[in-house]
Amino acid sequence: MDDIAPEYDAIVLGTGLTECILSGVLSVKGQKVLHIDKNDHYGGEAASVNIEALFKKYGNYTKGEEPWKKYGRVNDWNIDLVPKLLMSSGELTNILVSTDVTRYLEFRQVAGSYVQQGSGPKATVAKVPSDAGEALRSSLMGIFEKRRMKSFIEWVGTFNVDDSTSHKGLNINTTTMKDVYDKFGLEIGTRDFIGHAMALYTTDSYITEQGKAPETIERIKLYGNSVARYGKSPYIYPLYGLGELPQGFARLSAIYGGTYMLNTSIDEVQYDGAKAVGISATMHDRGGDSEPMKFTTKAKKILGDPSYFPGKVQVVGHVLKAICILNHPLAGTDNSDSAQLIIPQSQVGRKNDIYIAVVSSAHNVCPKGYYIAIVSTISETSANHHLELAPGFERLGRIEEKFMGPPIPLYEPLESGANDNIFISKSYDATSHFETTTDDVKEIYHRAEGHELVVEGLREGTNLVGGE
Amino acid sequence: MATKGPVGARGPAGSSRGGNSRFAQFKLVLLGESAVGKSSLVLRFVKDQFDDYRESTIGAAFLTQTISLDDQTTVKFEIWDTAGQERYKSLAPMYYRNANCAVVVYDITQASSLDKAKQWIKELQRQANENIIIALAGNKLDLVTDQPDKRAITTADAEAYARESGLLFFETSAKTSENVRELFTAIAKKLPLDQAGPRNPRSGGRGGVELRPENTSTQGAGNTCAC
Ligand SMILES: Cc1cc2nc3c(=O)[nH]c(=O)nc-3n(C[C@H](O)[C@H](O)[C@H](O)COP(=O)(O)OP(=O)(O)OC[C@H]3O[C@@H](n4cnc5c(N)ncnc54)[C@H](O)[C@@H]3O)c2cc1C
Ligand SMILES: Nc1nc2c(ncn2[C@@H]2O[C@H](COP(=O)(O)OP(=O)(O)OP(=O)(O)O)[C@@H](O)[C@H]2O)c(=O)[nH]1
Ligand SMILES: [Mg+2]
């Protein structure tokens, strides 16, 4: 067995997407990276698992039974633990392109983005319009409202935060989105789907917050650009599930010299005063046929996910999530093989939206005929979690199998890392896409490296032995 | 249903028939103990070069090479090297995902390297594509031509194991290039040219997208979502 180096530029703990992007980027930039996971698989909280592993994770079956057997080959299933989709013009896409990790992965469109109007038996599901034709047919707006929406969207297209002549006479830095909506005379229902299905806010607090307009407009632009890129919906999704993403970045890190060790527990983080300077760890053999290997090594910095630093993180909220196996598409989505459906909070008397993300065999995540729907929201009560997700379950119709655990805590680091040299990521939040994940990547990079991460041209000027 | 062809979609590669000619693309992965000559075999096959002082692979190549089986048939290999992730048993499943073929290499002068090769073959048969074509390559044949006593694994033993396990088998030398082309050609001949591409529903099929830099895109939502 090769020796572990006595010192690394960075030790990265956990192979979730955030950590894998960071180790990929650091390796490309010439740093010597040791990347460790306590689990025997890549992905951490952002892994995709097979159906047997899912049953075992949630334990919702009687001992001795093997309920996964009726679902075909277990390895035909790649079920995401975190429900997210990629915005096709989002920052994760940019990072995938600039690092060439796109070589290892294949993507497909998500067929449609939908929004619910009303609740209970009167609820309807409508497609969020992606082009003029769809907008004209959309049941979301009346004929006059469509015109107002058109002029709003045109204005968003010409909006430039630095050019006050494009601000319609509004003081854009202090105005609220309410003022903007009022200016265009948009109805409440339209504001609802603009804010929640296009700007993808999970609550309504953006409407009255002063100075929130530029950010909202940027989000609407991102939505529009993402839809325009491939059509139909703003989302794309990797074949074989989201768990492929961290693996792709891990390979990037490895081809630039990163060292990978799964199944390795951290016994101790070593400090010099307040600063972390190294680790001692034990690599366990998966088959169990060789002795565990203990080692100690130094590092200029340590990065990792919250699970490695329970004492250095705080809980900032809880996500509720239910993974459901269906054998039919989602009603109201034109039999789409994949979809996102947003149930805005206002429609069902909540503070936070409910999201449903559906993928299927079209994305090689399950055998033909099955659909995986994940219903999620931010928890608002301390009990009745099942009830909080009920409006989502109503949309699913018959459910073959439901996996729902206790509320999932969301962690954030207590400190920046400036004092202890430990740079901790945030948990994957309740948003439906990866924009907050890439924000976190950039923030951690900035904290750890002292300068901004420039995504464009990341691999330019780097040399590879084999000429990848 | 997403049927609209994306901008810049790769054509339905994988396998195509135009006129009388056939073109098929396959993913090939390399496995084997460190220093048996995996990268050297690829370097010989792709660039017809050899390097006596090759460093252990980091910066692993993702190389492609085509071979013509006959006037009408061209096979393109998309060759993946492990990038060292196997060193601590941390190879990602993505590596073998959809691999159509694998070359598992051992060093005929190192007995333990065949044991390691056997482990990889087991792992492939368990984890990879059911129809994966596996070739076993006993490399560094040149070392035993002058000094037969250096040989640690007899041809007969390895051949018997390969036959039992349904593998293609060659003894090769990346240094002299002996049997290197033959190895890859034999794999190409065994591949199901009429189906398959390296990854099953190739991008460019229904709803597949190819991600490219967005350089030309200056559109804002205004002229794209023409609601
Ligand atoms: C990764 C993680 C971070 C947490 N951070 C906070 C926090 O910042 N604030 C808060 O109030 N609560 C946090 N919790 C919850 C808290 O640790 C306990 O779950 C809770 O306080 C109940 O304590 P316990 O003594 O019953 O559980 P414990 O026995 O302390 O452990 C709870 C679980 O955490 C796992 N765990 C413990 N230490 C580690 C470690 N170093 N690496 C990986 N897994 C570990 C254990 O295996 C077990 O599954 C965290 C939990 C985890 C798993
Ligand atoms: N004599 C001889 N030496 C070879 C042959 N093939 C490879 N070597 C030498 O063996 C050493 C290792 O070769 P590599 O191709 O780097 O081996 P590898 O399997 O890719 O090793 P890792 O990347 O560490 O897994 C190098 O010094 C090569 O020059 C061969 O056919 N004959
Ligand atoms: Mg090599």
TrEMBL record, chain A:
Gene Ontology BP terms: protein transport; small GTPase-mediated signal transduction; vesicle-mediated transport
InterPro entries linked: FAD/NAD-bd_sf, GDP_dissociation_inhibitor, RabGDI
Gene Ontology MF terms: Rab GDP-dissociation inhibitor activity
Pfam families: GDI
A cellular-component GO term for this protein: cytoplasm
Similarity-based family: Belongs to the Rab GDI family.
Listed name of the protein: Rab GDP dissociation inhibitor
Source organism: Calycina marina
From TrEMBL, chain B:
Subcellular location: Cell membrane
One example of a Gene Ontology biological process annotation: vesicle organization
SUPFAM superfamilies (alphabetical): P-loop containing nucleoside triphosphate hydrolases
Membrane topology of this protein: Lipid-anchor
Region feature Disordered, mapped onto this chain: 194-227
GO molecular function: GTP binding; GTPase activity
Name assigned to this protein: GTP-binding protein ypt5
Taxonomic source organism: Calycina marina
